[in-house]
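Homework-ish question, so no full write-ups if that breaks the rules, but can someone show me the predicted structure for this set?
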Amino acid sequence: MLKLSHRPDLVNIQTAHKEINAFIHRTPVMRSTSINEIAGCDIHFKCENFQKIGAFKMRGASCAGLSLSNEEKEKGLATHSSGNHAQAVALTAKLMGTKAYIVMPSNSPEIKKRATAGYGAEITFCEPTIEARKSTLDEVVRQTGATFIHPYDNYNVICGQATCAKEFHEDITDLDAIMAPIGGGGLMSGTALCTSYMRPTTRIYGAEPEIVNDAYLSLQKGEIVKNTRIDTIADGLRTNLSDKTFEIIREHVTEIFTVTEQEIVDAMRLIWERMKIIIEPSCSVPLAALLKNKSSFSGQKVGIILTGGNVDLGNLPF
Amino acid sequence: MLKLSHRPDLVNIQTAHKEINAFIHRTPVMRSTSINEIAGCDIHFKCENFQKIGAFKMRGASCAGLSLSNEEKEKGLATHSSGNHAQAVALTAKLMGTKAYIVMPSNSPEIKKRATAGYGAEITFCEPTIEARKSTLDEVVRQTGATFIHPYDNYNVICGQATCAKEFHEDITDLDAIMAPIGGGGLMSGTALCTSYMRPTTRIYGAEPEIVNDAYLSLQKGEIVKNTRIDTIADGLRTNLSDKTFEIIREHVTEIFTVTEQEIVDAMRLIWERMKIIIEPSCSVPLAALLKNKSSFSGQKVGIILTGGNVDLGNLPF
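A: Not a homework solution, just the prediction itself:
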């Protein structure tokens, strides 16, 4: 896999999909008659909660890991993450036969701490602030020589995340719209790029919690706006857009919807009850947005990416 | 569909499978690398939690419903059930364009009450005793002329449940063993019969909670033994074997394992965390039994039927 210094094109995404094949599952697409009745449209859910490590992040991390030189690979991979990206980098390193150095905020969910350790990563805990994460990571990288894999401001990561939309459009060839949640924007920008190449008539929607609506505000203002609070239950969506993801999203995304915390919990519970699958709060945000804006999708075929299923069963919102 | 007055044979099962096609989903088979590592064998999970109404019971209820005469169909279907069989009869009646009359104990889980009502059934609540269920049902049948669909002591129901094993053996053709939980024994006897026809070398195991081990004791004693208590978390397995199911189970089942309540909860949580799917406590019983008896399955290919996913999210055991 090449180290990409530009937005991935379709050939990059196709190549990445082949090369990360052993690192990922091709996840199933599921439907629910009863949710369709409630929504008034035909929803296809791409189940990345069944992905390795339980989230789509495995796609981007492995695509970035495989782009390193042999010398870089030997020194290992590093990142800071409270969650799924940490596990993805840890498992990628394990499968590549090298080390992972993960900086995690001390208040990360137990399930994510245990899983990351379970993949053999060396974890350094830090205070739960962005500054502490960055400075601790800098120190880890200085000591080990490992390569920092940014969770989204990295064209190889974006290219890997784009393989999810590639599978989706291959399996369901006539989506009228595709929806994904927006955190740092890695999945959203990969989804948007891939859709613009493979099916340019499909409308592309992002969805965010109201209280971390940085992407929504950034699109309105035409420049990156950062979140002023991060206390959403959707713990995967607390991050801000980056330069690389913002540029792609502003160009390709049709609209960004925002939803309340209660709407997120209600949509999460609806999926648990009707579909019998476990999703984390971050990934019920697009369904919540759709149910809030039914008229935009009436009678249409809509694809929703269910991003992950790593939820702390000892600490559920219902 | 014929009304069966004898054990279903393979042709009956094949015919039933065709005729109930519009009433059921063909459910997927899933695997989990991490559970396989823990178990030391290769487990294939048949996901009836994704079945219509969220449980395998839809197979048997529809097979029984379709066997009624036109006159019987017109007067409707009736049953008593605290759970999944109620929903299955309710949806079967709805799809057949007739009425369902359901007697439910007043302490049934909320999710099951709401779902049954949601399918348009007429519900009569009764005291939570077997006697009250039967006498209330008798009264409902007397008043309406509806036909009682017994949850398991009915060869058409057994034949319908057998279609689950049929799909399983079609999709995974070389199972060394197949496991199912035992409540009244409808699924177990259907699974045993179908396996004896389609793949007689596959060993057939049942699994029960220790505190409702009526099937285990019945096999030991050579006659039906009834449960003396029913306070297991596995609410689908509180019932006793019937004449029809006992005769089939004693002839075909290799062995019945029993497990503790804690083992049931642990196995349920393991499936939720590792597979990201929602199953009810009753259906983690076979995995709990396998993990307790690993040496019997070492290195083998084992099929486990995950029977249902209707769990009250407001009342979880963890």
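Now go work out the reasoning yourself. Hint: Chain A touches chain B at residues 28, 30, 49-50, 54, 111, 269, 272-273, 275-279, 309, 313-314, 316, 318 (CB under 8 Å).
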